[in-house]
Recover the amino acids of this structure.
């Protein structure tokens, strides 16, 4: 498999990520499990794609002009992606986040040149919530646009137009299943729609963490959450605009413990250092693979997303005290 390794423009480094065959998960499933290496993007996560598409869309609509500002309410990977893309396009970035977020996140965003606006954590219905604050700030700032990743469908378009065709080409047009978890839902909906456009028989599965409402929604039609999860970036309680019409054929619910087991195995056995949402995705991909094999499809091929780098979680997932405080198993080599 080859890929273009020479680019004329740093923004062209976003996407065209490698796809890798995962040995342990493939053995566990009894079929091929492939991981899309989104940690290989410049901002080290899948959200670089959404950031690029959202900013290009705002430019194309004439809303974002030279010297303008991109505003978003986010504590994580989306802010990092927006800050990098905005720098490359000559825009300012303003990120609104709750003041209870980790110091590393604040330091990272500041290091990239974003202006941080910290607000007290509060419930979504409160107008002072960081998402509403970011929308108001965008409205009040001349030349600013609100990225609005949850309900701006430029987010899922990134995956319809880039992630899905890349996976299709990398697997040479033979893929049986795809699964990942949802934060905004841009990835699962976009890759799902994109792959179905190539082959409507590709089975699209939502893999939900505990504490999110989508597993129940796709299983029974009712948005209902059970339990909780420490996974960052995933777990959704409503049908965002990005999730509307997502072609979900089946759904799995995966615990943090199961996700962490794959995070540990992928690091120790295959040399991949990932975040927890990747581990949860891999657990879902193994379930989807087993389901296809049980139906007699012994040569099934399943793909999932390796969302971000584990280096982003050194003080949490890779910290024994933090894991113990959360009641989670500690990786043997940290104990
Ligand atoms: N994993 C991580 C680490 C993320 O930051 C995100 C983005 N929220 C996701 C998974 C889910 O992606 P999406 O927003 O496209 O559903």
């Amino acid at each position: 498999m080859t890929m273009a390794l020479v680019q004329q423009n740093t923004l062209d480094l976003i996407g065209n990520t490698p796809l890798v065959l995962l040995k342990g998960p493939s053995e566990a499933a009894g079929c091929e499990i492939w991981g899309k290496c989104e940690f290989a993007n410049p901002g080290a996560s899948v959200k670089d794609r959404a950031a690029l598409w959202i900013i290009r869309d705002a430019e194309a609509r004439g809303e974002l002009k030279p010297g303008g500002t991109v505003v978003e309410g986010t504590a994580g990977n989306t802010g990092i992606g927006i800050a990098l893309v905005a720098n490359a396009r000559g825009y300012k970035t303003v990120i609104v986040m709750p003041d209870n977020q980790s110091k590393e996140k604040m330091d990272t965003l500041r290091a990239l040149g974003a202006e941080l606006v910290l607000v007290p954590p509060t419930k979504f219905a409160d107008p002072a919530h960081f998402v509403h604050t970011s929308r108001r700030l965008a409205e009040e700032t001349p030349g600013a646009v609100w990225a609005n990743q949850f309900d701006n469908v430029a987010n899922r378009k990134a995956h319809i137009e880039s992630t899905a065709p890349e996976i299709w080409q990398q697997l040479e047009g033979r893929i049986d299943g795809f699964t990942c978890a949802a934060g905004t839902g841009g990835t699962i909906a976009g890759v799902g729609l994109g792959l179905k456009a190539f082959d409507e028989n590709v089975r699209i599965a939502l893999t939900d963490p505990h504490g999110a409402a989508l597993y129940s929604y796709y299983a029974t039609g009712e948005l209902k959450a059970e339990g909780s999860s420490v996974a960052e970036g995933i777990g959704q309680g409503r049908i965002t605009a990005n999730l509307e019409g997502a072609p979900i054929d089946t759904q799995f619910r995966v615990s943090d413990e199961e996700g962490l087991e794959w995070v540990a195995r992928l690091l120790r056995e295959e040399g991949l250092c990932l975040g927890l949402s990747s581990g949860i995705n891999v657990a879902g991909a193994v379930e989807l693979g087993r389901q296809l094999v049980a139906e007699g499809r012994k040569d099934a091929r399943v793909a999932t997303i390796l969302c971000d780098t584990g280096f982003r979680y050194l003080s949490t997932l890779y910290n024994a005290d933090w894991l113990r405080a959360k009641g989670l198993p500690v990786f043997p080599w940290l104990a």
The chain has two domains: 10-45+163-322, 47-146. The chain has eleven helices and ten strands.
